Amino acid sequence: MPRPLRIGFVAYRGNMQCGGQGIYLWFLARELARLGHEVDVIVGPPYPDAMPFAGSVVEVENEMFWARWFMKDWAEFLPRPNPLRVFHPLHFYELGASRLGFLPEPFAFSLRAFRALAGRIRAGARYDVIHDVQCLGYGLLGMQALGLPVVTTVHHPLTIDRRASFVRDDSLRDAIGTMQFYPIGMQAFVARRLERVITSSDASADQIQRDFGVRPERITMLGNGLDTDLFSPDPRVERSDTEIVCIGRASDPNKGIRSLIRALALLPRSVTLTLVDSAQSEASSWAQELGCGDRLQLAGRVPTEELIHLYRRAALVVVPSRYEGFGLPAVEAMACGTPVVTTSAGALSEVVHVSGGGVTVPPDDPEALAKAIAELLARPEERHRLGTRARPRVEAAYAWPRIAERTAEVYEQVNERGRGLQLSC
Predict the structure, then answer these.
(1) Could you tell me the pTM of the whole model?
(2) Under DSSP, is residue 72 helix (H, G, I), strand (E, B) or coil?
(3) Which of 13, 101, 200, 356 has the most CB within a 10 Å radius?
(4) In CATH terms, are 6-225+400-424 and 243-398 the same topology?
(5) 3.40.50.2000, 1.50.10.10, 3.40.50.720, 3.40.50.300: which CATH number matches 243-398?
(6) What whole-number distance in Å separates Cα of residue 193 and Cα of residue 183?
(7) Which of 291, 314, 131, 170 is nearest to 234 (CA)?
(8) How does pLDDT run across 255-289, given as a tens digit for each residue?
(9) How many H-runs (helices) and E-runs (strands) does the chain carry?
(10) Where does 6-225+400-424 sit in CATH, by number?
């Protein structure tokens, strides 16, 4: 059995409702603790749910100026109860950077995390590895300078988000704002200098190599994790023969929702689409323009239990994305025994191939998407076969215990490399 490791996680956002990094942090830390490893966490706001499996959780301060500026929350903008805290150097940097259109969180968090980690080490803490979750701030290089192996997880590089933002931009001013906002230069610089970059698909690994310039031998593809106890079939739930489900924001061009709405307009009137997106989604007006607005239901943001019920009830789940670094909704659906129709963009072909629970079509092709959906809806036996085949394959490839075991192997590799370098010196 591998020796127990002392692992320090750093994550600039920790709450599971704020994106994939919070989910990844919580579940991976839990599974590593179950394997017998010691886990400490240094995390920024919004903070994670309780982590009783962690030895300690250090909540790093952040006045969240960028979020308040973006939401125009002027009443709560200055720190309370002491507004003069705004003149603390890092607070003042975040305030100024937010006002100028930059995303300051990764850089500022990385410095605060470095300070917190250095304080813990001075107090006697020892770590075999530091694991960053998608921050890639300069402070990580300080951690590495302390003699600690540092690895990072990047599900996909921010260059993907920047390209999607350019698609949304309506003016030169918007495009300049996009160029300013994403800290791509910093993240690429840091990623090239860390011991290992962990990612979730071969497509993401290729993108990180091309866009961040990371050498291929420093990138390890482990897949992404899923709670397969939670996302599971339930034979008591009656399946629809006509309802398709999609999880994705219409405001994000990468999600391909407009192509899906065009496909819906081509499908028989008995086919309905439940879209997990806000009630103000642009998808509603697109569907009205195409004459299928009465067949679109916007579910809003739903709790996990309701999302699982949607997966179990659906005839099939559609993922029409123009890029995915992994494609979690497709894997979640297949874990629930529901077949999928996805595009072949990014990692989606990979996860469908591994799981064997669906079909793929080219991205941005509503006709091909509608044809694939119609063919599967007309073949209930094939839908059942695909869903039944996918479940055990998802468990074998993506269940969190498997991902934690593979991640611990990476930790051992970077530790062996570090010990080898020390001996050679």
Answers:
(1) 0.90
(2) coil
(3) 200
(4) yes
(5) 3.40.50.2000
(6) 16
(7) 314
(8) 999 999 999 999 999 999 999 999 899 999 999 99
(9) 17, 13
(10) 3.40.50.2000
Average pLDDT of span 144-160: 93
The CA-based angle 278-398-130, given to 5 degrees, is: 90
Q: Do 139 and 111 meet the contact criterion of CB atoms below 8 Å apart?
A: yes
pLDDT of amino acid 393 = 97
Residue 389: helix, strand or coil by DSSP?
helix
C-alpha–C-alpha distance, residues 162 and 184, integer Å = 9
What CA–CA distances, in Å, run from 77 to 62, 177, 379? 12, 22, 56
Given a contact cutoff of 8 angstroms between Cβ atoms, the answer to whether 216 and 245 are in contact is no
Residue 117 token pair: 């980690």
What angle, 0 to 180 degrees and rounded to 10, lies between the N-to-C axes of helices 257-266 and 366-377? 60
Angstrom distance (rounded) from CA 386 to CA 392: 11
d(CA 338, CA 380) in angstroms, rounded, equals 11
332 with 226: CB under 8 angstroms?
yes
Which residues, other chains included, contact 66 with Cβ-Cβ below 8 Å and sequence gap of 6+? 94, 97, 98, 103, 104, 105
Contacts of residue 170, defined as CB under 8 A and 6 or more positions apart, other chains included, come to: none
Quick one: which of 118, 117, 128 has its CA closest to 7?
128
Give the end-to-end CA distance of the chain in Å, rounded to a whole number: 29
Q: How many CA atoms lie within 13 A of 262 on its CB side?
A: 12
Neighbours of 99 (CB within 10 A): 11
The domain limits of the chain are 6-225+400-424, 243-398
- Residue 16 CA to residue 26 CA, distance in Å, equals 8
Instruction: Cis check for the bond before 183: say yes or no (omega within 30 of 0).
Output: no
CB atoms within 10 A of CB 423: 7
Give the tens place of pLDDT for each residue, 362-401: 999 999 999 999 999 999 999 999 999 999 999 999 999 9
Residue type, 30: R
Distance, CA of 196 to CA of 215 (rounded, Å):
10
